Amino acid sequence: MVALGVRATCPRSRVGGAPAMGGRIAGSRIATALAVVLAGAAAPARLIPRFGGVQQSEVGVAIAAPALQASAKPRPGNSLQVKRCRKALRTKLQRVPAFVVTNDGGSPFLSQLSSGDQSALMFIYPSEAQAMLKGVLKAPNGASSGAKITLSNLARAHQLATKPPIKSGLRDPITNRELDMVWQFGPHAAEQRAAQALLVKAMKSPSVPKLPAYMVEDLVYDKRGKEVRPIFLSRADAEAAIAKMAGTPESFKAQVEVLDLLALLRQFQFGSIADTAATEAEINSIEFVPPTESVAFQAEVKSKSMGTQARVVPPDFRWH
Description:
alpha+beta, 320 residues, 32% helix, four-stranded mixed beta sheet, single chain
């Protein structure tokens, strides 16, 4: 059973009474996303209010990160412990859908950067992938390219985004320079505006991350008596969770913090080496909640058998 709750600073409450069968929260905008995320979630024994045992400034997290407290003495783990820690993070990220526009062979369509180099864009929100697909289909020979939206997950997308540039096999028509190719996350403009509005309201830096995420102060999920703290990838989902809290708004005045998701993931990667055990415990105490729209679109694509699982094979740069 999964329920929403408020952490110890105020009385525990739940969303809409008892959850429906299968761990879904009846009537909630985020029911589908939560069911997917929490169905296989490892329930932590406790919540830990720091991330990776390192200070915010050490990894460049500039956007309203959760309260960080440095460990008294960071304890690097051995190779097996580091591997286990990173696997825990990868498992959670695999529950978040990601989308890329590819041809029928699984190769991504490339976009040109200001430098002339090429990028393959990956999306967390399906609307951005759908907009790119429409543009591809309108291009010459686009209709015959077999262009489609291919499914993957945030774990694989983040892995590709952190790889160094590779040669694209294309050349600059003027200088004949061989162009590089990188994997990048495509921003979601509406979500960035939503994050910016929260930052302005909180009188914090309006510098908006490419991939915003949201943490609600004192909000946890209770799963079989264990607490899991959600990190929402959609402001609308975070606010829907707050709205479902039992009682009046006056009884639960939640503060939504804007996070830089990519900086947070870098922080976890750093912490997996610098303070392995503490970082693993913190990873196990959170869950990433994908946008409701992404979960719904993923289910739609799968039901229509449109998704393919390709792989990257240079120089074709196939998606997997």
